[in-house]
């Protein structure tokens, strides 16, 4: 049954949760697998390591969730809605995906407790090999030594939320336009 | 018999919010070099911001003031032209493309970029900074085109 422009539309939370789960899995798995790939290389002093998984699969996959959630919501209920709602769905996907990726990261630390320390040690060795002014190098190493602190984890979660938020709002707008537009 | 044209602006707050957000993405994407920060390191906030969204490979990224940008050449193309597209959106909407054409351009831009990534990965060709930037720009512009009528419409009446 086609539902167009009705006052009461079905809940989008199911679609948001599926989109969030997809985004969180992409973000967490690319980070964890990329981390292990990085640990398999020698620290070279480069700012970024070419062994990162995202390097092999491309960019912007973290924005897929907003697009998918809108596709799922529009197709599941066969409804049309405005792009503002698509943007909201994208934003919610980003918020839930950030929380889920934090939880998944914590679970992985229980599975492999040495992973986080190994990444920090590798990053410190890499920073030591960098061509940086001494004070910048010292600040980088000091920051990396505290990378596991709750403050740094909070900052990382905040930047992840902001980045995923903006990108998923845009992908949500596009998703609503393509899949839920009345045109 | 004369025609009159009236411009209608919709979703004003969303439009300006989008311009502000994408401007932020471009500024952050240009990396620490924009501020001539010679102490740039992997812990620079610009790199942290994009580390879940872009591979940030040195060999695939432009530099600004000698410092690597926070996103790769393709991504800076996407964000840059999307921002330009948003700013010239009133002009784009005058062109009055059909929704089908807008959708086809978006799909073509995605296919072009995927083909470029896959072809390069399989060794059929080697893409360059410029080819990545141009293809990313085509995608960014197609995003702005498909959204244009959601923000601006030109109504013709007799």
Please give a structural write-up.
- The complex is a heterodimer of chains A (183) and B (158).
- With 183 residues, chain A is an all-alpha fold.
- Helix content of chain A is 72%, strand content 0%.
- Chain A is built from seven helices and no strands.
- Chain A has helices at 13-39, 53-57, 64-77, 83-111, 115-128, 134-145, 150-180.
- In chain A, helix 1 packs across helix 4 (83-111).
- Chain A starts with 12 loop residues before the first helix and ends with a helix.
- Chain B has 158 residues and is mainly alpha-helical.
- Helices cover 58% and strands 10% of the residues of chain B.
- Chain B has helices at residues 12-29, 45-50, 73-87, 89-95, 99-121, 129-151; strands at residues 4-9, 63-64, 67-68, 152-157.
- Chain B has a two-stranded antiparallel sheet with strand order 1-4. A two-stranded antiparallel sheet of chain B has the order 2-3.
- In chain B, a hairpin with a 2-residue loop joins strand 2 (63-64) and strand 3.
- Chain B is flat.
- At the A-B interface, helix 1, helix 2, helix 4, helix 5 and helix 6 of A face helix 1, helix 2, helix 3, helix 5 and helix 6 of B.
Short description:
The complex is a heterodimer of chains A (183) and B (158). Chain A has 183 residues and is mostly helical.
